[in-house]
TrEMBL record:
GO terms for molecular function: 2-methoxy-6-polyprenyl-1,4-benzoquinol methyltransferase activity. It is an enzyme of class 2 (transferase). Its EC number is 2.1.1.201. It comes from Pelagomonas calceolata. It comes from the Eukaryota. Residues 12-23 have a biased composition (Low complexity). Belongs to the class I-like SAM-binding methyltransferase superfamily. MenG/UbiE family. This is 2-methoxy-6-polyprenyl-1,4-benzoquinol methylase, mitochondrial. It is found in: Mitochondrion inner membrane. Coiled coil: none annotated. It is a peripheral membrane protein. Pathway: Cofactor biosynthesis; ubiquinone biosynthesis.
């Protein structure tokens, strides 16, 4: 049933893409903006919240993001991959700015770090377009004592990653996909740099079910989160955007269809906390 529904959604998504292929505008929160301006606007939001990133995630998720991320990385089972190959898998966390996912990866692979891979490659890489976010990540890396030979932070855009084809064994993106200008282009690009047989995992806010809970969550996100952002961080505008970006993000089945159209094999989706977030997975 799920795959039949996904097939219908795939046709709907394809139709929307065809009708908007020549469009020069996109959404930025509840605004319509020129496509070429969105990346800069999103960069401004994350430059604004970089030093309060954990606070932002706590406000957006009621603190649940920590548990979601623990589960997300735990299910990657990176130590099993390392045991099977004899070395740490090469992992890329896209839009991973402050290192939340990468630090969890490093902890799970502690027994396999800090040695470099046989080809001299650094096992863990964080890519993010925002230097302010990366600066916070590098500072946290030093505080945690994680050597640069294990983990590197690099400027990179999800739609144009600065890596060769088939570079990484595992690629993740956590709470970042909804902020890219062109989700389909980003999915294709992440698949490009994934090795054959490699694994892609996306953790993102999604569509809440059932309806009564969705109405409650929508009211909280629309009215409470921006007000808290204003009072705590003096930044209502950024939080307004982040809330609206969730509302504009594709549904679970729509994104599942987009993974399939990008060429990922065996795409699946798993809801967490009644669909407040969802994990989409696929292989190359």
């Amino acid at each position: 049933m799920l795959m039949r529904q996904a097939s219908r959604h795939a046709r709907a998504v394809a139709a929307r893409q065809s009708s908007s292929a020549s469009s020069t505008t996109t959404h930025f929160g509840d605004r319509t903006v020129p496509t070429e301006e969105k990346a800069g606007l999103v960069k401004g939001v994350f430059s604004s919240v970089a030093n309060n990133y954990d606070l932002m995630n706590d406000l957006m998720s009621g603190g649940m993001h920590r548990l979601w991320k623990d589960d997300f990385v735990g299910r990657l089972n990176l130590p099993a991959v390392a045991r099977a190959t004899g070395q740490a898998p090469r992992c890329l966390d896209v839009a991973g700015g402050t290192g939340d996912i990468a630090f969890r990866m490093a902890e799970s692979l502690a027994a396999w770090l800090p040695p470099l891979e046989e080809d001299g490659a650094i096992p863990l890489t964080v890519s993010d377009p925002n230097e302010e976010m990366l600066s916070v990540g590098r500072e946290r890396q030093q505080q945690r004592g994680i050597d640069a030979s294990c983990l590197q932070f690099e400027v990179g855009d999800a739609q144009s990653l600065p890596y060769e084809d088939e570079t990484f064994d595992v690629i993740t993106i956590s709470f970042g996909l909804r902020n890219v200008t062109d989700i389909d282009a980003a999915l294709r690009e992440m698949r490009r740099v994934l090795k054959k047989g490699g694994r892609f995992e996306c953790l993102e806010f999604s569509k809440v079910e059932p309806a009564p809970l969705r109405a409650l969550y929508d009211a909280y996100s629309k009215h409470i989160i921006p007000e808290i952002g204003h009072r705590v961080a003096d930044d209502r505008a950024s939080y307004d955007y982040l809330v609206e970006s969730i509302r504009k993000h594709p549904s679970q089945l729509e994104l599942l269809s987009q993974l399939a159209m990008a060429g990922f094999k065996s795409p699946t989706v798993r809801d967490m906390t009644f669909g407040v977030v969802a994990v989409h997975s696929g292989y190359k």
